[in-house]
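Lecture notes, structural biology module. Today: joint structure prediction for complexes of two components.
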Amino acid sequence: MNAGTKFAVGAVLIVGSVGYLMASGVKQTGQYFLTPTELTQKIAVDPSFYEVGMKVGARVVPGTVSRDVATQTLRFQVTDGSARYPVVFHGLPPDTFTDSVEVVVEGRLKRDGVIYATNVLAKCGSRYEAVPKA
Amino acid sequence: MTLLGTLALWLALLVGVWGALAGFVGGLNGRADLAHSARHAVFAMCGALLVAVVSLEWALFQHDFNVEYVAAYTSRNLPIFYTWSALYAGQKGSLLFWATVLSVFGSLALVLTPRHHRELLPYVAGVVSLAAAFFVSVMLFGHANPFQRLPYTPLDGNGLNPQLQNPGMVFHPPMLYLGYISITIPFAFAIAALLSRRLDTDWLVAIRKWTLLSWLFLSIGICLGMWWAYVELGWGGYWAWDPVENASLLPWLTMTAFLHSVMIQEKRGMLKKWNLALIIGSWLLSIFGTFITRSGVISSVHSFTQSSVGYFFLAFLIVAGTASFALYTSRLPLLAAEARLESMVSREASFLFNNLLFIGIAFSVLWGTLFPILSELVQGTKVTVGPPFFNQVNIPLGLALLALTGIGPLIAWRRASIPNLQRQFAVPGTVGVFTALILLVAGMRDFYALMAMALGGFVAGTVVQEFARGARARHRQYGEGYALALGRLLARNRRRYGGYIVHTGIVILFVAFAGMAFKTETEASLRPGESASIKSPYGWTYRLTHLGISQYDALNRQVTAATLEVTRDGKRLGVLTPEKRQHVDGLGRPTFQPSSEVGIRSDLREDLYVVLGGVVNGTEQAVFRFTINPLVWWVWYGGMIIALGGLIVMWPGGSPAAKRSQAGYAVRLVGEDR
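The predicted structure, tokenised, for the full assembly:
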């Protein structure tokens, strides 16, 4: 085998392992990113989707946020305009989390219809822009 | 002043368009008068844009809140430091900053490039004018004119987002921008070389400093970004694989690949196609980064407000990408290699694998970043991948790359012999194995962390060996003392030994990253007098006692601070005061959401990182998150060493005498290899 061929073999090995790592990575760590409406549809079609880790992107319903600082529990509801889900989260929400902010909730929907969040990301309009004055 | 600013923008646009036309036509038809005019167009553009920058800064300093940009990003009580940096705090200003810096770099490139490359310069002027004119036209036609006035004058401005009121944030964006922007210069030279068919290795030598410069800026910008995220955002880490972070990493990866593969082209005349593709690709990635951060197509906690500006960038990206690709493919026949790969066990081969790994990492990062969009296109549902994906893919690839960091410099060019390999690998290999053994005995069981540190030991061993051999050779040949020999070695072979210093910084970074495998975290709700404890991976126990809450007003904010007494294994270490800040405007009304100020106690081994989550209303009971982050300081040290190495490589000069001695040393090495 000349050097060129050997190199080609090495290159195929590297490209193959990158491909394999990526494919298995997506398979093992990929999460659905759904709106509440899509989540409702998904659950209706496939009830086994309860208890599956996923992300929901939605807006916090104003007035539904309750914080219990002592037990570090945050409860709120999210909606995309039509479907609505209650969320329970234990831990510290990010600074940007407020009433009516856009959030990404990472967690599982349980059969009681509540999303148990393991992580809450809040997106301010942009952290570079001021909050628009009401 | 805003009228002057807008006029300056229009003038910049006009001369930019002229510069592009004159540059390309002048270059293609060999018209010296047009080429000359294109050069002057770049200078004129630079002047006009500097006037625009001065106008905007003037409006900022005058608190002219009738200007929308000034009202949106500053306020009367904003510290002067941040008023100055508000120039690039918002989208509109950063577009202006970008265009201006590009025209400054373009002018410098035109002035500093040696005369024998002058055939390339009209095209360079053309590309720079075109790119800068694009940025100016986004401002003028994309509703992004920073000089836009409001129909009324607010009494005070919105102020700057408190998270941006941090010294790291004053330097992080411009450094990153400088990196992104300066890639345009190598790209312009690449296009010039393609258009003029001067595809020898000459043009690469002409842009070497520019590629290094943009690599250096990107490296510093990324490190500052990590530091800012760590001290300001309060989530306890420095890298989250957020799309915006990824966008800055992508061109860094391809530039780093280029800095290595270009050596093969210089030494052996190989990889011409690959190198050109890397330069063009890096530039497209820098524009791509701007596109995804500005358009909101990928949801990120970082993005600027969604705006039509993103689509300007998408269009620009598509047009520029297609044009470059067409030009590139039409010139492929001229890019044949002058030599072939002779052996798998050669420096060329190790560099090729290094390049494949860099590109593999870049591709997986790009793929992961775009995955929500791709999966929605293909499957109809959005699937996202997060940090676990990036870590799972990139830790093994990164470790392979780290191994090559050590292997590459040890293997001879062309073909390495067995004795040569034995001689080169004995010491560093032993160091690596011993590092692993010591850590195993000490009780470390995390496979990736062990690998990272063992490979780190190996690479560090190669660097020390190279310095020691070089210094010894000088000591023998010139009778210099070892310290002097070491200094001169570095001074006279800056590229090689500066590169080794960069490698040292990379090793330190990897070791620091590995430390994060042992991060521990706990949350606690404490009343005054109560305490919580957390165990560090070194086996110490930290005990944190909540002493109470204090509230006070500072310059432009109301502060709620908790005081915690910290002890480690019973020994008092001091107090930490994490804060919650509510920024207020001149009238005392709250602006922005409250932000956290992290309390950090660092030493070389680990950081104790405390976030004040909140205070129970009306009491002093507070919620805290305590995190132990091992080896974090080494990230900042690693970054500084990388920057230092980069500066050494770039440092201008090198007298003919120095070049001779360099040649002499190289001959000796080849002789020794036999």
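Point to remember: The CA atoms of residues 18 and 74 of chain A lie 40 Å apart.
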